[in-house]
Protein: DNA-binding response regulator
Amino acid sequence: MTPISVLLADDQTMFRTAVRRLLEWEGDIRVAAEVAEGDQILPVALRVRPSVAIIDIEMPGLDGLTAAAQLHQQLPECRILMSTTFGRPGFLERALSNGATGFVLKDASVDVLAAAVRRCATGARVIDPGLAAQAHRLGPSPLTSGERQVLAAVGTGASIREIARELHLSEGTVRNRISSAIDKTAARNRIDAIRIASENGWL
Structure:
C-alpha cells in the first residue's frame, strides 16, 4: 500500500520533528516535506504534491489560515488538516471556509492525529469534538470582514487617521466599523472588542 504523503507546516522545530517521527512510525504515513513559514507552504506543496497538509495556524511569513486558502485554490486535491494550540471557534469557522478538511488541537495524541490524517486523506471531515461543540454554541462570527480588518488595525496601535489612510477609508467609516464591532461583540470599548474577537478566533 502506498503511504499517505504529508506536508508538515509548523514553525516550532522540536514539535515538527517529533510529529514527523511519530507519524512515520505508523508505517502508512510518510512526511514528504516540512516547512517552517507560511509562505513556503504553497510552493513546496506544488512541488511534492502531498495527499494531506498539516498546517499550524500561527506561523511567520503567512498565517496558516491564509496559506490554507491559497493551497486549497491552487491544489484542491491536497486535503488540509489544521493543527493549533488555540482551540478557538472562530479559527475553526475560518479554517473550514478556507478549504480545510480537518481541525485538530496540538495536545491530541499521536493516535488521534494519525487517524485524522487517514480520514482526511479519504476526503472525510475531521473536527475536534470539543471545539465543534463550542463553535456550535457560539455560532458564526458576527463581524464583517471590514470590521475585522479595522479591529486588527486598532490592535496595532494605529490611530483612526492612520487606519483610514492605510485601508483607503474615510475616518467616519473607520469609527463606524469600530462602533459596530463593539456592539456586535457586546464589548465595553474597542480594546475589549479586540480581546473578545481574539479569544474567539474572529481576528
